[in-house]
Structure formats: structure tokens, C-alpha cells
Structure of ThiS family protein:
Amino acid sequence: MRDLRIRYFAGAAQAAGTHEAVIAVTEGESLADLAARLGLGNDRLAKVLAVSSFVVDGVVTTDRAVLVGTAQAIDVLPPFAGG
């Protein structure tokens, strides 16, 4: 296990109640696994995570199969409104 920094932006930060968290992850953990864990007990955050994009060590992805066990940081980017 190792620590992973999660940064929440916009509506994700509001739903999480924080802008940043550090959690322990395992080597074989996927982004889908991580999102499920982050949303446990927080339905509002779970809904935001379901439609968010993620930046894993500087690379934007919506692929929930990406392994995050060796990542240093993940940014959670909910859909943004505007024009």
C-alpha cells in the first residue's frame, strides 16, 4: 500500500467537502475501484465521480480501468458548465 494524493475541483470539492485528500491505494487498484471507494457513504460525491474526468499524474483520462496504485496524484474534474 502507498499514499495517493487526490485533488478535487469545483463541484467535486463541494461534494467531497474538501479540496484535497490522501488515501492508501494498492498496486492493482483501478480508477473504478478508487472512485467506488471515494464515493462510499457520500451519495453526492459518488454521483459527481460517476460523470467526472480524472487527471492521473498529468494525463487526462475517462478510462476507469487505468491502474492507480503507482500514481502520485489524481485530480477529479467534474463536468464544467459555461460557454
Observations:
- Residues 2-69 form one domain.
- Helices lie at 11-16, 31-39, 43-51.
- Strands lie at 2-8, 20-25, 53-56, 59-61, 73-77.
